[in-house]
Every structure is written in C-alpha cells, then in structure tokens.
C-alpha cells in the first residue's frame, strides 16, 4: 500500500505542472488559394462544424479553428494538430493531421473544431467527415459527402449532383435541384421547395418528407425498410408505383390504376416521370400542390 501511495504521489507531482501550464491548445488556419474552373476541393476532417458557402469569387478561402481545453493528469499528446494543403491544377486537397493520442487518468476534455470554406459557387466538392453539423449554401457544383452521425443542411443548392452517404441524423434540403443520390441509416430527411431532376434515396430507417417538382422522363426511387414517406409534387407528373406493407393515401390529383394488398399504381395528371417507392412497413402519403 505504501508503494502504491508513493506511485500515485509521483504521478500527480509529475503531471500537475502540465495540467496547470497547458490548459488550452489552439490552432488557427486562414489562407486563400487561387483555383481554376476545373479544380476539385477535397476535404478530410474530424470537425464538429463545417460551413461551405458559394459565391461569385474566383479563389478558395480555407479557415480552420481548433481549440482544446483540458485539465487533469494525462500521458501522450506530444504531436500537435496540423493541416496539410496540397494544390494542383485539378485538385486542392485539405487533410488534417490529428494529434497523437492522449491518455487521461482523470480530468476534463473540451474540443471546439470548425471548418469554414468560401468557394466559387460552381466548384465541385468531395468531403469526408465524421460527426457534426454541416451546412452548404449557394452551390451549383457537384457535392460528394460521406459522414457518420451528422446534421446536414443544404440551402439554395439548385444545380449539380449530390451524392450523400450518411449514418444516423438529419438531412434538410431547401431549394434543391440537379440530382440527389442518398444512402443513410436512421435518417430524418426534409426536402422543401425543390426541383430535382432525379432522386435515388435508400434509408434503413427514419422518415422522409419531400416536396419537389418532377422532370419529364426523370427517375425517382425511394427505398427503405421501415420508412414513412410524405411525397408532395409541385409540378410535372408521371407514374407512381408503390410497394408497401403499410397504408397508402393519395390526394384526388392522383388517379389510381391498380391497387392490391401490397402494391399500388397511380398516374399523375400530367408528365411522364417514373416514380417508384418501396418502404417496407412504412406508410405512404402522396400529395399535390
């Protein structure tokens, strides 16, 4: 017992100075880079918050802020956080170098890690993130986003293709367009005031509420294991094929063509888009404005 007490006293004495003299680790990065019309921006990050804003600018501004506050007895953590930016004609790549692992015996650890990107609105983006809040504004280029549990917001992204692979969380799209390919886990999805030319949505669980016009000859697929769907058409029309185990409701605008226990077909009054919804035990409500 005396040896254990001495060891604890020695550890406390050895690391007390570090805990008191190094309460905060701060990193700030703010640089601007020239790009061409064909440059793709690739970002790999563990940030808690990402904001990407498009405009008529011709350069890319990258701002990364990371503040860590901790106290207590720790081991390791000698290698600091850093950011590596590589630039070529075709790509600007942003990779974060994470700090070496820290073992904490007791104490506290608080992290605030944000990324802000100001880009040309037609720039193509490829982003790999983890958990956090991610916001994209005023973009017309293509977007590829892979994240774990996240809250994702797209506002006024009316052109380009969007390929999103998300875990659990929430996705909100306001003023969307182009094409959307979405794969997710337990994900709540809200799509408003949109004009998508194509949709391909596959969710394990969650809820989908979508409001969009339909493009002639456009393909719209929605699939899920248990996925309640409210689908509102604001323009155009076509053939709706519904595979379901739950219930199907349709506004009078939808003309029933075939109705069986687990399958229904409706025709929208105008247009020739193809819409297929297969939602397992989820209920479906077709609406029209």
Short description:
The chain is mainly beta.
Question: Could you characterize what this model shows?
Answer:
It is a single chain. With about 290 residues, the protein is mainly beta. The chain folds into two domains: about 100 residues, no CATH class; about 160 residues, no CATH class. It contains one helix and 22 strands. The protein has a 22-stranded mixed beta sheet that branches. The longest helix has 20 residues. The termini are far apart.
Helix and strand topology:
Elements: H1 2-21, E1 24-34, E2 40-44, E3 49-55, E4 59-76, E5 82-87, E6 91-97, E7 102-120, E8 124-128, E9 132-137, E10 143-146, E11 150-155, E12 161-165, E13 169-174, E14 177-212, E15 219-224, E16 229-233, E17 238-243, E18 248-250, E19 255-259, E20 263-267, E21 273-278, E22 284-288
Parallel strand pairs: 2-6, 2-8, 3-7, 3-9, 8-10, 9-11, 10-12, 11-13, 12-14, 13-14, 14-15, 14-16, 15-21, 16-22, 17-21, 18-22
Antiparallel strand pairs: 1-4, 4-7, 5-6, 17-20, 19-20
Helix content range: under 10%
Mean pLDDT: 88
Termini separation comes to: 77 Å
Topology as a string of helices (H) and strands (E): HEEEEEEEEEEEEEEEEEEEEEE
Q: Compute the gyration radius: what is it? A: 25 Å
List descriptors:
289 residues, mainly beta, 22-stranded mixed β-sheet, 1 helix
């Amino acid at each position: 017992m005396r040896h254990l007490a001495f060891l604890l006293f020695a550890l406390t004495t050895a690391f007390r100075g570090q805990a008191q003299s190094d309460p905060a680790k701060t990193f700030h990065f703010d640089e601007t880079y020239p790009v061409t019309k064909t440059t793709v921006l690739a970002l790999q990050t563990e940030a808690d918050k990402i904001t990407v804003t498009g405009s008529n600018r011709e350069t890319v501004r990258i701002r990364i802020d990371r503040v860590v506050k901790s106290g207590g007895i720790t081991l390791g953590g000698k290698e600091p956080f850093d950011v590596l930016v590589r630039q070529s004609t075709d790509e600007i790549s942003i990779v974060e170098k994470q700090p070496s692992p820290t073992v904490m015996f007791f104490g506290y650890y608080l992290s605030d890690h944000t990324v802000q990107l100001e880009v040309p609105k037609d720039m193509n983006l490829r982003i790999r993130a983890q958990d956090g809040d991610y916001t994209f504004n005023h973009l017309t280029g293509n977007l590829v986003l892979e994240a774990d549990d996240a809250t994702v917001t797209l506002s006024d992204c009316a052109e380009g293709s969007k390929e999103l692979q998300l875990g659990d969380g929430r996705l909100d799209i306001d003023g969307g367009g182009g094409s959307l390919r979405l794969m997710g886990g337990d994900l709540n999805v809200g799509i408003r005031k949109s004009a998508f030319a194509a949709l391909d949505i596959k969710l394990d669980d969650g809820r989908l509420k979508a409001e969009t016009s339909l493009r002639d000859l456009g393909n719209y697929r929605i699939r899920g294991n248990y996925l309640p769907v409210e689908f509102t058409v604001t323009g155009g029309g076509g053939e709706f094929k519904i595979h379901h185990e739950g219930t199907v409701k349709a506004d009078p605008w939808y003309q029933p063509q075939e109705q069986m226990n687990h399958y229904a077909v409706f025709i929208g009054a105008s247009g020739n888009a193809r819409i297929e919804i297969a939602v397992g035990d989820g209920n479906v409500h077709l609406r029209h404005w």
